[in-house]
Design a protein that fits this description.
The protein has 185 residues and is α+β, with helices and mostly antiparallel strands. 23% of the residues lie in helices and 30% in strands. It has three helices and nine strands, in the order βαβββββββααβ. The strands form three sheets. It has a five-stranded antiparallel sheet, sandwiched between helices. Strands 1-9 form a two-stranded parallel sheet. Strand 5 and strand 6 form a beta hairpin. The radius of gyration is 16 Å and the shape is globular. It starts with a strand and ends with a strand.
Length: 185
């Protein structure tokens, strides 16, 4: 089932999410709905707070954005109760966007390597090192479970330039090609 993505302004997007246990109600169905919702919105990641749930879970699929012949370098994962272990490397900027903030993009600087500890959908614990685009997508989604939006990483001038657009999204004056829920509507 395709779920509505919560737009900028909802408090759940700004709060630190809570860990869950293996007995979380209808977890497998929730994960399937998140995959369906993310793909319908042409996303590469989706965090539970973006569908209104303040829980520490997100999904990522970077396979779909890898160049032809490089798909094996991508990842498709469910990350539950994730905790960053380490971030390293020379900071690099890349233009990011967010399904909760339609039509707003901006350069975000992040380290290229991320070591993270998490549980998969079967509650098996993992600690993995991700690099490049895989690390970036996970860092973006991890920020969501920490109550941080990519816009908070933007340079001050860019923040001023998008202020009106963010306010319009908060008021429900935005359009997306996917199902959304706006605070102002």
């Amino acid at each position: 089932m395709i779920l509505p993505i919560y737009g900028y302004g909802f408090p759940v997007l700004k709060q630190k999410a809570n860990p869950i246990t293996a007995d979380y109600p209808e977890l497998n169905e929730l994960i399937e709905n998140m995959w369906e919702t993310m793909y319908k919105a042409s996303g590469v990641g989706l965090a539970a707070p973006q569908i209104g749930l303040p829980i520490r879970m997100f999904i990522v699929d970077t396979i779909q954005i890898m160049e032809e012949g490089q798909e094996h370098l991508g990842i498709k994962k469910v990350l539950i109760n994730a905790q960053k272990v380490d971030e390293t490397g020379e900071i690099w900027a890349y233009e990011e966007g967010c399904l909760s903030i339609p039509d707003v993009r901006g350069d975000v600087e992040r380290p290229p390597q991320l070591r993270i500890r998490y549980m998969d959908e079967n509650f098996q614990e993992h600690e993995d090192l991700f690099i490049g685009m895989n690390a970036r997508v996970i860092q973006h989604e991890y920020d969501h479970i920490e109550g941080i939006l990519f816009t908070e990483h933007l340079k001050p001038i860019k923040k001023r330039l998008i202020k009106r657009r963010l306010e319009n999204i908060r008021k429900g004056k935005a359009k997306a090609d996917y199902k959304m829920k706006f605070l102002g509507k």
